[in-house]
Design brief:
By secondary structure, the protein is mainly β. Among the domains are: about 1-35 and about 160-265, no CATH class; about 50-140, Sandwich (Immunoglobulin-like). The chain starts with a helix and ends with a strand.
């Protein structure tokens, strides 16, 4: 260990003392607002529309379908114009993944700017006839590149994502697998998976790297909640926070940070500067706390309004917060860490939503997806220019998910995917929640 770690060694304790540090807070929560736990019954892979990609031109589209392994004949897919006429699809290749298959279909008969519907019909395990649809507008978008699907079929389809600026942009996700194990997924062009028990697995953990002079970088992980099937609708929030010497130690080592945090009774969202993380509670007063790379903590000036669901990202050394309060316009704020000062920015102009995703790349911010006030899933993505304080529509997310996506950002690109799709079932007021495994590179 370096001299730096020797100086802070008196603040850490061995992980086996975690149980002394955990404070549990219970509160009633709407069950639909958090990702489901690991399945205990036989795994069922639902048929689903994974993506609609239009990289080449607005007249062309490649549609990807996900289906149970070796069941390529149990469904029907149609592409419909706005008038309802059927457009022919050409079947492409088959790809076998982990316990599911992927099929592609293509067309070159689209008209730019027109609205189209992909309709998927199949029979589920209980012999129910399911029909689900996805809508898209024909427009070229060459900013999206399909990457390999994650090899996951149980547990959470989301996680605490890390990208290390100092260590060759390594990308790692802590993914809740079950009450005893994390699934540590690393991405270097393909996904590799290992198991870990440190820290104690939980839902909605946060993780982030912080750098410091001398080329060092610490990784922090923790918080989140556990759930109990015996107490439906309840969450037990954890106040433990852990550190690692670098991203290379994810899944191998974790030391507890003392003193422990208090009052953690809801989900947290963060934005980062080089050596500080700023943490806001969702559905709260707007109070904000910062932690430095030395893990010194202090209260910061609160957001000027109470928080709803938050999306946050950093451009330069400023943090940006998209505040999604149910039924209200989506507000947008910038935080100057040097001045400890908030500034109201242009409101997000898209459809009012909650649980949207935000990230940054090439000096601009991006926000979109989520669900609207009626519970419909959204895939529109908007670009924010901090120079002009302006929003413009950018593109439609080509992938499946619209809630709880993971995302990574470096200076030039972003990576996002997984999450859950809120999808309609034709002829029914119900909406299904489908775990997603697709993953994308975004190059604006």
């Amino acid at each position: 260990m370096s001299s730096y770690f020797s100086q802070i060694g008196n603040r850490i304790r061995h992980p086996y003392k975690l149980f002394l540090l955990v404070t549990i807070w219970f509160f009633v929560s709407c069950e639909k607002e958090f990702a489901p736990a690991r399945l205990t019954e036989e795994i069922v892979i639902p048929y689903s529309i994974v993506s609609v990609v239009q990289n080449s031109s607005a007249s062309e589209a490649i549609i990807e379908i996900k289906l149970p392994s070796n069941q390529t004949a149990g469904f029907k897919i149609e592409l419909l114009s706005k008038s309802g006429s059927v457009i022919s699809l050409k079947e492409g290749g088959n790809e076998a993944a982990d316990r599911f298959d992927l099929m592609t279909f293509s067309t070159t008969q689209l008209i730019a700017g027109e609205l189209y519907t992909v309709r998927l019909c199949y029979e589920d395990e209980q012999k129910n006839k399911i029909t689900t649809s996805r809508y898209f507008t024909a427009r070229q978008s060459a900013n999206w590149k399909k990457l390999p699907h994650a090899p996951i079929v149980t547990g959470d389809f989301t996680g605490a994502a890390l990208l290390s600026p100092l260590f060759n942009s390594q990308r790692v996700v802590y993914r809740y697998q079950d009450d005893s194990h994390w699934d540590i997924l690393r991405f270097d062009g393909k996904w590799t998976s290992t198991e870990s028990t440190l820290p104690v697995p939980r839902h909605n953990a946060i993780a982030f790297p912080l750098g410091q002079a001398g080329g060092r970088e610490l990784v922090f992980v923790g918080f989140g909640y556990i759930s109990d099937e015996k107490i439906p609708g309840k969450r037990a929030y954890l106040n433990d926070f852990w550190w690692l010497p670098s991203i290379s130690y994810v899944g191998q080592y974790a030391g507890v940070i003392l003193p422990s945090f208090t009052g953690l009774d809801r989900d947290l969202k963060i934005f980062l500067t080089f050596d500080k993380a700023f943490m806001l509670k969702e559905d709260f007063t707007g109070a904000m706390e910062s932690i430095e790379v030395t893990w010194d903590r202090k209260d910061c000036k609160p957001l000027p309004e109470k928080t709803g669901k938050i999306a946050a990202f950093t451009i330069g050394e400023k943090g940006y917060v998209v505040n999604q309060l149910g039924g209200q316009s989506v507000h947008f704020y910038a935080y100057d860490s040097a001045k400890d000062q908030w500034e109201k920015k242009a409101d997000f102009p898209g459809v009012v939503r909650t649980q949207g995703a935000g990230f940054s790349a090439k000096g601009k911010g991006y926000f979109g997806l989520g669900i609207d006030n009626d519970g419909n899933g959204l895939r529109d993505l908007w670009e924010y220019d901090p120079v002009g304080d302006t929003w413009v529509f950018h593109s439609e997310y080509p992938g499946a998910g619209n809630r709880y996506l993971i995302s990574f950002s470096d200076k030039t690109k972003a990576y996002l995917g997984w999450g859950y799709e809120t999808r309609p079932v034709n002829g029914s007021p119900a909406r299904q929640q489908i775990g997603c495994t697709d993953f994308w590179e975004f190059n604006p």
